[in-house]
Amino acid sequence: MVALQYLRPPQNLLSHRCSQRRLIRCGIAEPSGEPAPLGKKTKYNDGFFEKAFMTLFARKMEKFAAPLKAEQKGWFDYDYESFVDVSRRVMQGRNRMQQQEVVREVLLSMLPPGAPEQFKKLFPPTKWAAEFNAALTVPFFQWLVGPSEVVEVEVNGVKQKSGVHIKKCRYLENSGCVGMCVNMCKIPTQDFFTNEFGLPLTMTPNFEDMSCEMVYGQVPTSFQDDPVSKQPCLADICSLATPNSGNCPKWQT
Length: 253
Description:
This protein has helices at residues 11-14, 48-62, 80-91, 96-109, 115-122, 127-140, 142-145, 170-175, 178-196, and strands at residues 148-155, 158-166, 201-205, 212-216. By secondary structure, the protein is an alpha+beta fold. Mean pLDDT is 81; it is low at 1-38.
């Protein structure tokens, strides 16, 4: 879920990441400063703009999601849980490639016409462009993945501040699903920046502590060579888990 800094909100909004594991304490990711107790999710105090982004993404994704019997949600009826639920319904009846394509279409629909071409002109794949996008990621991605920070990384032998350390991914923590992390966030985000924007990006989720490393300027490996392709379900927290499956079943089809 990407490039929020380049998205175009609607007019009425402009005027306002082992099969055995457990949830860990993570005081850093707690905006209020209070650590989340073991087994409980981090609490966030979402404001107007956070809810606006949740609603914007969720409503765009709703047309690809399995329908609900309940009454259609209106503007600002979405919170983070309902946003994650939309993502879960998008997965229903689709293989991993189809799920990733939905995210791509949603992202493209939220950009102004010609935005990818303009991005390539403004941000060619240079050290500066990678560092600039890393810096923008921290404030603009917080509603989606939680607190993060820019870190120094090495890309092709060059040290640069184009890494982003997500301390505890909100999307993974709330979904509890390896497949949702990979198919609805990691792979489509990498592909979107690398292929649509021309700026390589690699995301490496840590399914033990739910942190994630983003490295702008680093070309992602193929899915077959990526360690996530061998990641089993988080069977103790995922509602879609298949405990006896060697790998997460959500990308085996």
